[in-house]
Design brief:
By secondary structure, this protein is low in regular secondary structure. It has no helices and no strands.
């Protein structure tokens, strides 16, 4: 027989603290930022 799934218990994801790290990504969408990277680097975009 198949094992019964227990869906009533749901684990909450805790916020992971990353001390010293301020940005989650290495690029930025702000044109003024030093880490600015165009999302699409192609003709007409």
């Amino acid at each position: 027989m198949a094992k019964a799934k227990n869906e009533s218990i749901k684990l909450d994801k805790k916020k992971i603290s990353r001390p010293g790290v301020h940005a989650k990504s290495k690029t930025s969408t702000l044109k003024e930022s030093k880490n600015y990277k165009k999302s699409y680097k192609g003709q007409g975009r």
